[in-house]
Amino acid sequence: MTALAPVLWGTTYLTTTMFLPADRPLLAGVLRALPAGLLLLALSRQLPQGPWWWKSWVLGMLNIGAFFALLFVAAYRLPGGVAAIVGGVQPLLVAVLASAVLNEKLTVSRVLAGAAGVLGVALIVLQSQARLDALGLAAAAGGTVSMAAGTVLAKKWGQPVSRAGRPVTPLATTAWQLIAGGACLSVFLLVFEGLPADPLTDTNILGFLYLSVVGTAFAYFCWFRGLSKLPAGAAAFLGLLSPVVAIVLGWAVAGQSMGALQIVGIAVVLVSVAAGVRLGNPRRGAGKLRPENSAANYARKPSA
Length: 304
Hints:
The protein is mainly alpha-helical. It has helices at 4-9, 12-19, 25-44, 52-77, 80-87, 90-101, 108-125, 134-157, 170-193, 202-227, 232-238, 241-252, 260-279, 295-300. It is globular.
């Protein structure tokens, strides 16, 4: 189920190019995150308690707000292939952070699996005429660091506990992060891009509905639910499925070409993902997320 998240994220490029208005990346980010967060909040009907007000804001900024904004800068200033390769480093970065913060074991085999994933993504997306841009590279690297840090922090902080002492569902915590990230993106939209002058078409609305409900609300719920049950390092490897889905959809739907190197790259990525998930299992019991407080602890902390 966790793999559904990067698979659905892989449909974003095709959806954007076919259904959304051109050159409005921040608008797309806001209409992805905010409606999705409000929908999940309506379904969960739970608000943050105590420290989870600021924790949700931090996670929302890292996983949604800052990540989307930096991703858009990188998309404008770099060829898509270069940005994807920088993003492909994320499993390695998560593995290093998880070993330091979560005590997940970092092995040579896991590092090699991550390096193979980067190589596979490069074979899939990199073109010989790709040009580099310093600001674009910095934005792509910043987005990768932001998402990696958000993934590890989400795992470290675990699931909050309600006043009744029961763990809050990933549905609610996903909603809080999407709303926080969407609110951050709204500020960037108003300052740098402005509101659209022309009304959205029916095609635009259908595209935004799919992107918000399926590609964001459902996808991020799957991601954070999976992160609550899997080691952070193992979940991060699943993110490499996104460029595979994007290139296959481009070939099947948009008529884009797919050469022998890209097919080899797809195979390398799939092997890397399989190895990374298998090697990502830490010692017994370390991968399963526990609530941050038991009912007894919660009773001793009325302020929480």
